[in-house]
Amino acid sequence: MILPIVGYGDPVLRKVGEEITAEYPNLKETIANMYETMYNAYGVGLAAPQVALSIRLFVIDTTPFGEDEDLSNEEQDELKNFKRTFINAKILMEEGEEWGFNEGCLSIPEVREDVFRKEKITIEYYDEDFNKRTEVFDGLVARVIQHEYDHIEGVLFTDLISSLKKQLIKKKLKNIMEGKVRPDYKMNIFNVKRNR
């Protein structure tokens, strides 16, 4: 089932997600719905707070990045084959050089900015079958994980840009909160002004 994506300004996007157990109600269905919602919106990642669930869960499928001809064959193959569910994730380490990449977010349509993140992460998480894993990721996969991880920590990519850039996108963010954007996917706007 395709779920509505929560728009910028909704308080759920600012909450730190709660850890869940394998007994979380309808967990498999929630995960399946999140993948379906992400694919419908042409995203590569989706976190539970973006579908109004304040829990530590996010899903990633970097297949679309695997089409980038500027990448090596090895990088393309890695991205085409990376699909993962992260439950109760905890980033243990971020290392390497910071590098910039133009990021966007399904909760913040029509806004894209360069964000600088470390190139390599070590993360501990549970998969959809509640097997505990600790893995190291780098490059674009690490970046997508960091972006989605920020969501379960109540952080948005717009928090990571310069004050000047924040000023420049202020109007766009206001438009999202007022329901003046029309993404081609289902969205819940928190602060829609009602017609009188």
UniProtKB/TrEMBL annotation:
MF (Gene Ontology): metal ion binding; peptide deformylase activity
Active-site residues annotated for this sequence: E148
Cofactor(s) needed by this chain: Fe(2+)
Top-level division of the source organism's lineage: Bacteria
Annotated residues for binding of Fe cation: C105, H147, H151
Enzyme class of the recorded protein, top EC level: hydrolase
Alphabetized Pfam families for the sequence: Pep_deformylase (PF01327)
Keyword list, A-Z: Hydrolase, Iron, Metal-binding, Protein biosynthesis
EC number: 3.5.1.88
Keyword Hydrolase found: yes
Catalytic activity of the protein: N-terminal N-formyl-L-methionyl-[peptide] + H2O = N-terminal L-methionyl-[peptide] + formate
Note on cofactor: Binds 1 Fe(2+) ion.
CDD domains in UniProt: Pep_deformylase
The keyword Transferase appears for this protein: no
Any single biological process term in GO: translation
UniProt xrefs under HAMAP family: Pep_deformylase
Listed PANTHER family: PEPTIDE DEFORMYLASE
Family listed: Belongs to the polypeptide deformylase family.
Purpose of the protein: Removes the formyl group from the N-terminal Met of newly synthesized proteins. Requires at least a dipeptide for an efficient rate of reaction. N-terminal L-methionine is a prerequisite for activity but the enzyme has broad specificity at other positions.
Name assigned to this protein: Peptide deformylase
Species of the source: Flavobacterium psychrotolerans
